[in-house]
Structure formats: C-alpha cells, structure tokens
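User: I'm putting together a teaching handout on how sequence relates to shape, and I'd like one worked example. Could you take YbbR-like domain-containing protein from Leptospirillum ferriphilum, show the sequence you're using, and then write out its predicted structure as tokens right after it?

Assistant: Happy to. First the sequence, then the structure tokens directly below it.
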Amino acid sequence: MRVRERIRRSFTRHLFLKIFALFLAVLLWFQVSRKGQEYLSFQVPVTVSHLPPQLELTKTSPQQVTITLSGPPGLSREVPPGSLNILLDGSLMHEGSSVVHLLPSMVSGPPGVHVDTISPRTVRLALEATIQKRVPLYPQYVGSIRGPFPSFRVTLSPDSALVEGGSHALSRLKGLRIAPIDLSLLTNDKKQVLSVPLTLPVNAQFRIVNPRIVTVTITRISEEKKHKAKGKRQF
C-alpha cells in the first residue's frame, strides 16, 4: 500500500504546475508546426454541376466567396489565381430557392492544400423550371446608305427563334434582334441576300435552340411601285 500511496502522491504533487507545463508544451508544438506554412486568400466563383435537365440556375448569391488556404512553402506557385472554384453538386436540387452550406471538400485544389476558412459559409441558389418558347426576330441596322436613301423591304427567314431557359426569364422575353446589318455595305442590286448570325444578348439567362443563322433578303422598291402603292392607299 505504501508503494501505491507514493505513486499517487508523485502524480498529484504540484498538479497545477504539471498541467501548466503541459499547456505550454502543446502551445509550443502548435507554434513550431506553423513555421514554414504559407497562407493565401482567394476570391473564387461558386459553380453548380449536374443540374437535372428540367432545371435552370437563375441566381447565385453571392457568386464568389473568399477562401483562405494553408500549405507548405511555395503554395503560391502551386495554386495560381483562377485555378480554384467551389463546385456544388446539383443532381439532387429542386425548383425554388435554397441555401447551401459550403464545406472545405467542395473546394477544388491541388493535393496537400488545406482550406482554413470560407467566407461566407452559405450561398443562396434560385432554380426555375426549364421551358422553351418561340419568339419573333427583328432586324437592326448600323451605318448609313451611301447616296439617296432608297426604299427597301427586309424579310427574315426564319422570322422566329426557339429559345430555352428559366420560366421567369422567358416570360419577359418578347423577341430577339439579329446581328446589325451594315447599311453602308448595301449595293445597287435589286435584291441582296445576307446570312446574319443570331447571337445572345449580353447577360442573357436563356439559350438559343435554333436557328443559328438567319437569311436576310433586302429588296429595293422602285419609285414606280412606290407611287402605285401610294395611289392605292388614296382610294
């Protein structure tokens, strides 16, 4: 019993000092382990992959978050700007608004890099049902015609386009304009046929299904036909 008592006393004697010494040892180990570490902060985009075909991502708020990385010396060479992003799996997402909590495992990056912080830790996504809609096409012009301004008729073929996107965005879409026709390039030919690409407006939240090219036919109207048309309108 005396041996056990001596062992117990040896452990409990100066207990506070022993705990304090252990705390200092852990703190020292932590400081030493941090030496040689490199820390970097990045603004990275939030992207969503594998969305169901019947859904459209219409809003991500915020579109970028700040992450802090730590790693061995030379980390800045291993992680060039623009090489990182936060990738969310959209395969199980549903229509409506949802809040997603961001995890370090969602950050793409090279091996050996540790994600320390993500700010903010959540993003809000807005998802809408995918629909298709047919909208009319309209010409638009740039430049000016050289010489007297002639009368002409413009026809488009096809005169409408099939677009696809979120239901809310397409409900506000009334039509699309084709690429501008440069009037300064028109000739004196009675009829001219142009192939004009159909492109998306800036920041469009929909896609063009078809067509990609619109055939534009520009037909000059002679003065005689123009006067006849005016005369018919008088009766």
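A couple of points you could highlight for students: The chain has a mean pLDDT of 80. Helices lie at 2-12, 15-34, 75-78, 167-171, 223-234.
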